[in-house]
Amino acid sequence: MEMEIKFPTGKDFDRILEDIDKKVGVKLLRDAGREAMKIVQLDMISNAGFDEESIGPHMRDSIKIRSTNVAETSRYNTIVTLRVGPSKIHHMKALAQEFGTVKQVAQPFIRPAMDYNVQKILQVLATEIRIGLEGQ
Length: 136
Hints:
The chain is mainly alpha-helical.
C-alpha cells in the first residue's frame, strides 16, 4: 500500500497559515501532531526496557509527548515542535538501550518507533488537520 500526501510548500503554505489565525493554527497543528505521535509513544512504551526487579521509576512510564510553540522564537519556518521520549531522568538509560554500551547490546526502541509507523503517522496527521480545518 502506497500513500502520498501533498501539502502546499513555500509561499503557498505560508499564505494558507497566515489566513488562519495564528493561535488557531498553532493549536490545530499541536493537537493534530499529538494525536499522530500517540502511535510512536505506544510503540516506544511497548519496546522500552523494563526491569521488574527495579523499585525506582521505570523508563517506559516516563515516555511522554512534549510540544513547543516555536513560531516566534525559531529561525526556521517551524510552527510547532513535537518530541516523544523518556524524561531527562532516564536519558542515559535510553541512550544505553538505543545505541548499546561496552557491556550491553543495542536494542533500539526510539528510532524504530518512528521509522516503522511513518505511514500511519502521516495518515492520522492529515486526517486530524483536515478535521480541524473543517471545524468538526
